[in-house]
Design a protein that fits this description.
Radius of gyration: 40 Å
Strand content: 15-25%
Structural class: alpha+beta
Largest sheet: 10 strands, antiparallel
Length: 1470
């Protein structure tokens, strides 16, 4: 309910009317008054034909102002300070008459010369800093106080050129912050220096330098308020480009902090500087950033601890005027233009603990104050201050001060006249003060109320146990009240009786009628005062400390086996009067045993009323299949706090069904499903006509569990197997009706790595599906992302972090998504990694007369002539001019900023809800202690949390998942994704090659050189080897051992970080053997034992091979090694078979010719098996000399013939043929296999070779990856995707094919002129299907982002959905003009009716909830709709006839496939 306060303004003439305004150009007054009337800027006047300059400085808290009057001709400056405490009070004034030498001017002053004045005033009004430059003169700075002027050197960069750098006032009004250009440093081409100067003594107390950009395009920067001396400084950098396409021109700005913790692009901030002044505000705890969009009345909020690309939440500020777009036809082309509104200024204030944010908006006619929660942007307080006497004011500053309160300072001309030509003439200046101390008191009360509520509730249990706090009232509830005939359902056992006033009675009546006595409900009780007091007992009422006129009522809701506690309070927005919000405070489980009594207590914590519900047996209840936590502690007001987000899961679970007092089981539980706890998760105006700002947004990661549960119960109805209209434990027609309207599950913007099992909704869907071995949730997510391109950018952070889990659970869908984003139309201009260093850098100044500069220029000219002479251009020649710049829409894909977790272990089958993976995750993460709430799944959370230890980025985790795939073809298909290949090449080119060579290849080469040198020294000369161990050999052996230890440490780190890839690589064992040989050499020399010559020779060979293998990072060497290894792997089994056959041949001469008579055993080549096997191997080279002594034997001749035929002719020729074939195959896949090897090497580099500080380098691991695609590359990629289409399975065949790709939302059908509305009491034909966006349709391609969401359900005064935000029975609020226009423009109309209207006046939502409680609708019996169409043979929705028989119809392709086995015989007969 809006509060409109009328308060007159205080006016004071602060500059006399003897001064006339001077305009250098044509001005339209008062339309252009805002251009000239500004604070901290010069305003030009004329007095007696002399130029007079005037300026006003306003303190940050708006408690003091300083007026400056400067006359350059008279060389006088006057400063007057005013105290603003509900009126203007002059505090002190002083003047300065400068000597003639002080205001020196040039001999010639043009009309383009402007003077300049700027400065600041302290909050106590004691000191003023004045920086003044008359026209054509130099800049002077003065420290001014009540005692006079003191000259000081001006701040840096304020006396350059014709302009003057204006400082920005700090939050405490003690410092001025200046931004100037500095000398570039580091790897950047541009530098900005931020300096803070004290207003009291004009000394630089803080200096920081920001380096960024490439130096070719200068970037605009802006400091974000509120500026503080202590703490980081935030700078916004404009990244837009004047050239390029629309995406490059709209590149989101980059905001960085001086402590280098924030480095992020914020999409949604249109401009870093706005016409209305300051628009971006950072909280004191550096955790929040809000952006007030100019002329749109939109408040955008980002959580700086859990970053998102687009705002985490966006709401329209109630009561604030905003522009609307109109379409104009200009030169035959439709053009959208905004309507003009009055100029506005905004100021944002955070509470001390940043739990609330206050936004004050001022224009020339009113002041609007909105106080919101920073957690979910729920509106806590709204007030409008206006007065008819406010005319033509120009608001300049909004300030908060502890003594003066909330002040608004404005200015306007003191007087005006018209000359003979009718032109306006303005005189003097008038200051206007709008003081609102009582509003500031309300804001302070709100801040105190919400800043400490979480800590107070957390500390309350200990205070209650120690008897330090006693309850204000006590109640109790015992099961079986329907059987005992009790007088009171929830009797009061202690405390005073609460008086029920008319507002409480009205709320009790409305809620009772809605739940128990609704006219369209199948369960309908009598409506008597006794029944209302029994089933909806009024327990308590209270008011807010900041608004005593607003009353909150607390009721109990009694059912057959359970009860609930609700609070009903007024909405804070201005959209209607008397609208209420219903919040479920406590949802009990089904209790049948009469021994389980529950106790209810209410505590008063200095105006904050807290509810406690407990039993003597604390823990959890599980009758309904889900753990219901108890005890329950919560704030009783209808405000949704962060502490209560987790409890919404159980509230939603209990909303599925309930047993009414008469024993009638209904679906859903109307007492809960009609509350704001339920409606807040749907789109605004879906179930209730009210702004979402009244109950807050549900985009936070704290709402992951309840959103996911709602998705399971409602959003995925059409994807369930079996009867979709299951009445009990399924939602029935009510769930089918609400399913298409549930969208918040896909609004998944924040990734919270503090929750390993569900850091985001998408991650929870992946974990749940992987554990239960299903794909229904992942498929639905990927389907929605592919349907809506804007949705991908909204959820880009969560999709990026959950992509590795999705790859594990659903590889085909992930691959399809990676292809989908390859040519995504999105671009972010990269300005490089911003570097920050303490201290200032000098401004870049070029001395053109310097000799060194002249010689350098000559060398540059000579070098350029040489390039021109030999035809070498210094610029890169583009092979194709049409090159497309793209940005991968996955922010942070390469960075190590978030903890990434692996999916939980696969569970067994889940036959019941209790064993569902979702509830196992809930149990594992319950905030209750182990003593009061058993954590049965603690091992599950521990195992997942352990997987998040160690460094990991989405890129490394995704590549690890690819490398762990058993399907080689799928691995290679992943690496063929164009952007992944370009990313691998960029990483290797940027830092991978250098790191790998310097930390592995170079140490191995050093090891080989030293090992070879030691071998040469030990084997050179005569005498024994031991005699050659001298000092040089010992020194070299020590260096060899050190190199071996260094490589060993690198290998051990790789084994710890990437054990699977490390131990599966054959190169690991080669390197290990080389290291062991190097250490063995050292130990032998250290002990005085010289190594054997054989050891020296073969060890040097092995280390040389290890060093050569290190060169596999180069493509020529790498591909050759891959060709060799792949060929050996392919023929390895054949070689093993050949070895065993040759081994068998070795037995023949060994048994035939050993110990033969007439032969000397010492000369017999077959006297033992080893010699026999060696000679048989020589037969391969056709060397049969060993058989010459036995040629007379027929057996020997037979052996030789068999060997030639089997081994030489057959096997060796087969081997040659296989080698030829395998080499061709390996050569064909060598390029793809090389990419696979490079991916493995890149993982080794990033996880095993880099240090923690190197992984934080933003130039190596940027937030965005930009790559270019030429026309040829684009064409080849599109051809590849077209020829290699993906198909997941029969149920989810939405891939890149045109026929099966997810279609956009169909446009609404045009309505007939005589159609009045949808038939009442009738459900839409698609109510039994899934989300309409998930249904395949053959519709034209339309932009999904430009279409509206599903139209809201029809409302009526008796609709059960109206209880969450209820209107009084004697009031019929009408929406405002702007709201009605917005609804009429943004909401598509429902389709025309397909049957005759029903005489019942029952709305769709009420009909669904009422009829589903009594019976279920058989979807297969649905009558045909429009003439000429039939109902779908599977679900009953209108469909298209089968083209084969024309006897049956189907609504979509999947249903036709599912029914084809049954329909096939009939169709063929037809």
């Amino acid at each position: 309910m809006a509060v409109a306060t009328h308060r007159p303004a205080h006016e004071k003439v602060i500059f006399t009317t003897a001064n006339e305004w001077y305009f250098r150009e044509e001005a339209h007054i008062p339309r252009d008054l805002n251009r000239f009337c500004k604070a901290n800027a010069i305003i030009e006047f004329q007095r007696a034909a002399a130029d007079v300059s005037f300026a006003v400085f306003v303190s940050a808290g708006c408690s003091h102002i300083a007026t400056v009057e400067a006359n350059a001709q008279d060389r006088t400056i006057k400063v007057t300070v005013w105290h603003l405490d509900e009126e203007f009070a002059e505090k002190w004034s002083t003047s300065h008459e400068a000597p003639e030498s002080e205001f020196t001017t040039d001999g010639y002053v043009t009309s383009y010369d402007y003077g300049a004045i700027h400065g600041g005033i302290t909050e106590d009004g004691q000191c003023v800093l004045l920086v003044y430059r008359p026209k054509g003169s130099t800049t002077r700075a003065y420290l001014v106080n009540a005692h006079g002027f003191t000259w000081r050197k001006p701040p840096s960069d304020t006396s350059l050129g014709y302009t003057i750098s204006t400082g920005t006032l700090s939050e405490d009004s003690e410092y001025l912050f200046y931004v100037r250009s500095g000398k570039k440093f580091g790897r950047n081409g541009q530098a900005k220096v931020v300096e803070a100067y004290s207003i009291r003594h004009l000394s630089c107390v803080k200096a920081e330098s920001f380096g960024f950009g490439d130096g070719y395009q200068m970037r605009n920067v802006c400091l974000l308020p509120h500026l503080r001396l202590q703490g980081p400084t935030y700078m916004a950098i404009d990244t837009s480009s004047f050239g390029g396409d629309d995406h490059q021109r709209n590149s989101p700005p980059l905001i960085v902090s001086s402590d280098e913790r924030l480095h992020w692009n914020f999409a949604g901030i249109d401009s870093i500087t706005s016409r209305g002044g300051r628009s971006c505000f950072v909280s004191p705890d550096n955790a929040h950033l809000v952006y007030v969009e100019p002329d749109a009345a939109m408040l955008h909020h980002w959580d700086l601890t859990k970053l998102s690309l687009r705002p985490l939440g966006s709401v329209r500020l109630p009561g604030v005027e905003y522009s609307t777009y109109r379409t104009w036809l200009l030169y035959g082309k439709e053009t959208k233009m905004k309507n003009a509104i009055a100029d506005q200024i905004h100021e944002v204030r955070y509470s001390p603990k940043c739990k609330t944010v206050t936004v004050v908006t001022v224009n020339d006619s009113m002041v609007v104050v909105n106080v919101l929660s920073t957690f979910n942007l729920q509106l806590l307080h709204h007030e409008t201050i206006e007065d008819a006497t406010w005319t033509e004011y120009v608001p300049l500053r909004i300030g908060f001060h502890e003594t003066t309160g909330l002040n608004v300072f404005a200015m306007s001309p003191a007087d005006f006249t018209r000359d003979r030509q009718g032109l306006l003439r303005l005189f003097g200046m008038k200051g206007v003060l709008i003081a609102m101390p009582e509003v500031f008191k309300k804001i302070k009360a709100l801040e105190v109320y919400f800043d400490n509520i979480g800590e107070r509730i957390a500390a309350l249990p200990d205070l209650v146990d120690s008897k330090q706090v006693m309850p204000l009232a006590k109640f109790e509830w015992k099961p079986g009240i329907m059987d005992r005939n009790d007088e009171f359902s929830i009797p009061r056992t202690a405390g005073p009786t609460t008086v029920t006033n008319s507002e409480d009675a009205r709320r009790q009546l409305d809620f009772y009628v809605n739940v128990y006595a609704h006219q369209s409900s199948s369960w309908k009780q009598d409506n008597t005062p006794e029944l209302r007091r029994f089933f909806v007992p009024h327990l308590f009422s209270f008011t807010y400390p900041w608004a005593p006129e607003k009353r909150v009522s607390v009721f109990g809701v009694v059912m057959k086996h359970e009860y609930h506690l609700i609070s009903i309070g007024p909405a804070a927005s201005s959209s209607g009067s008397g609208m209420d919000i219903v919040r479920v405070l406590y949802a009990t489980d089904i209790k049948i045993s009469q021994d389980e009594m529950e106790h209810i207590e209410i505590y008063d914590l200095e105006g904050r009323y807290v509810l406690r519900v407990y039993t003597m047996r604390e823990g959890c209840s599980s009758y309904s299949g889900a753990p219901m936590p108890i005890p329950r502690w919560t704030l009783m007001s209808p405000h949704f706090l962060e502490e209560d987000a987790w409890y919404d899961t159980f509230v939603i679970h209990r909303s599925a069904h309930v047993t009414m007092p008469g024993g009638w089981s209904t679906t859903p539980n109307q007492a809960i499903s009609s509350s704001t706890n339920m409606y807040a998760y749907f789109q605004p105006n879906t179930l209730v006509v009210q702004d979402e700002i009244n109950y807050g947004l549900r985009t936070r990661s704290a709402y992951v569990l309840p959103k996911y549960l709602l998705w399971k119960e409602f959003g995925l109805r059409g994807l369930r197997k079996g009867n979709p209209n299951d009445m009990f434990f399924g939602g029935g027609r009510y769930a089918d009706t609400l399913g298409p309207y549930f969208r918040s599950i896909y609004d998944d913007r924040a990734y919270d790595d503090a929750n390993p099992l569900f850091p985001s909704t998408f991650a929870l869907a992946c974990n749940s599906d992987y554990r239960s071995q299903q794909t229904i949730h992942i498929d639905a997510f990927f389907r929605r992302i592919r349907q809506d391109r804007i949705r991908l950018l909204d959820n880009s952070v969560t999709v990026t972090c959950a992509l590795p889990i999705a790859c594990r659970a659903r590889p085909g869908a992930t691959l399809s998504f990676m292809r989908f984003v390859a040519l995504y139309p999105w671009a972010v201009i990269d300005v490089g990694a911003v570097q920050v260093k303490r201290g200032a850098t000098k401004a870049k100044a070029v001395d053109y007369g310097n000799e060194w500069y002249k010689w350098r220029r000559r060398v540059e000219v000579i070098w350029r002539y040489i390039h021109m002479l030999f035809g070498v251009s210094t610029k890169v020649v583009e092979s194709e001019p049409n090159k497309q710049l793209l940005t991968l829409p996955l922010p942070g894909f390469c960075s190590f900023g978030n903890k990434l977790y692996k999916p939980p272990p696969v569970g067994a089958s889940f036959p019941s809800d209790r064993d569902d993976p979702f509830w196992s995750f809930v149990l594992a993460t319950t905030p209750y202690s182990k003593e009061k709430f058993p954590r049965w799944e603690s091992r599950l959370q521990t195992s997942v949390a352990e997987s998040g230890k160690g460094p990991a980025s989405p890129f490394t985790r995704l590549v690890e998942e690819i490398l762990e795939m058993k399907d080689r073809d799928l691995q290679l298909t992943y690496l063929k994704v164009v952007w992944l290949g370009k990313l691998l090449a960029w990483k290797m080119r940027t830092f991978g090659l250098k790191i790998y060579l310097t930390r592995t290849a170079l140490p191995m080469l050093v090891l080989f050189v030293i090992h070879l040198a030691v071998g040469i020294l030990l084997t050179g000369g005569d005498g024994r080897t031991e005699d050659r161990i001298g000092r040089l050999v010992i020194l070299l052996a020590t260096i060899e051992a050190a190199a071996s230890c260094f490589i060993l440490s690198v290998k051990l780190r790789q084994a710890y970080r990437i054990p699977r890839q490390f131990f599966r690589s054959i190169f690991t064992y080669v390197d290990g053997a080389a290291l062991s040989l190097g250490l063995a050499m050292f130990f032998q020399i250290a002990t005085g034992h010289a190594p054997q010559r054989a050891f020296l020779g073969f060890s040097t060979l092995l280390i040389w091979i290890a060093a050569i293998l290190m060169l596999r990072i180069y493509k020529p060497v790498g591909m050759l090694l891959l060709l060799l290894t792949e060929t050996i792997q392919e023929i390895f089994s054949f070689l093993v078979l050949l070895f065993f056959i040759i081994l068998g041949f070795a037995f023949v001469p060994f048994l035939l010719l050993r110990n033969t008579e007439g032969t000397d055993s010492a000369l017999n080549p077959f006297s033992n098996f080893a010699m026999s096997f060696a000679n048989i191997l020589n037969f391969i080279s056709s060397d049969y000399g060993a058989l010459e002594a036995f040629e007379d034997s027929a057996a020997v001749r037979t052996l030789r013939a068999l060997y030639i035929i089997i081994i030489t002719v057959l096997f060796l020729n087969i081997l040659i043929a296989m080698l030829n074939l395998k080499i061709k195959i390996a050569d064909k896949n060598a390029a793809n296999l090389y990419h696979l090897q490079m991916a493995s090497l890149q993982i080794e580099i990033e996880l095993g070779l880099l240090s923690a500080s190197e992984r934080r380098r933003r130039d190596w691991f940027p937030q965005w990856f930009n790559y270019s695609m030429t026309e040829t590359e684009t064409r080849l990629w599109e051809d590849y995707v077209e020829k290699n289409k993906l198909k997941w399975d029969e149920d989810n065949n939405f891939d890149e094919t045109k026929d099966n790709a997810p279609p956009p939302r169909p446009l609404p059908r045009p309505l007939p002129d005589d159609w009045a509305g949808p038939p009442k009491g009738q459900l839409p034909a698609t109510s039994t299907t899934a989300d309409e966006d998930d249904v395949w349709a053959t519709t034209p391609n339309v932009d999904v982002a430009a279409e509206a969401e599903t139209p809201p359900l029809p409302q009526s005064a008796s609709s059960p959905s109206s209880s969450a935000t209820r209107q009084p029975s004697n009031a019929t609020p009408a929406p405002s003009r702007s709201e009605s226009q917005l609804q009429s423009q943004s909401q598509p109309q429902p389709p025309p009716p397909t049957t005759a209207p029903s005489p019942s006046a029952q709305p769709a939502a009420a009909s669904a909830s009422a009829s589903s409680s009594a019976t279920t609708a058989d979807s297969s019996s649905a009558s045909p709709g429009i003439e000429g169409t039939l109902a779908c043979n599977v679900c009953g929705a209108p469909g298209k006839r089968c083209t084969g028989c024309r006897k049956v119809a189907y609504c979509r392709r999947e249903h036709q496939r599912a029914d084809w086995k049954t329909h096939m015989a009939v169709c063929k007969k037809g």
